[in-house]
Amino acid sequence: MSKPKDKIIERVIKKIKSRSEVGYKKYGVTLKDDYQPLGKWLTHIQEELMDAVNYIEKVKQVLDWNDE
Questions:
Q1: Tell me: the pLDDT tens digits for 41-68?
Q2: Max CA distance (Å), the chain
Q3: Distance between CA 3 and CA 14 in Å, rounded?
Q4: How far apart are CA 19 and CA 42, in angstroms?
Q5: What's the CA dihedral at 23, 44, 59, 22 to 10 degrees?
Q6: What percentage of the chain has pLDDT greater than the value 70?
Q7: Residue 27: partners with Cβ closer than 8 Å, 6 or more residues away
Q8: First-to-last CA distance in the chain?
Q9: What is the C-alpha separation between 58 and 60, in angstroms, rounded?
């Protein structure tokens, strides 16, 4: 794989690789080899998205960008 031309993409790729290492150390399995029921994966996605919404709301509060 060639190096991305875009430095932002390069940073994101590094972060994804780092996150993968953290996950492997924590769970002892790669994502490719982690066989869970589809419903479990949907729950993981849902929880991550809910966390993301909470983080966005926190940043809006800190920046005083609330539209309410």
A1: 999 999 999 999 999 999 999 999 867 6
A2: 46
A3: 11
A4: 19
A5: 0
A6: 96
A7: 34
A8: 46
A9: 5
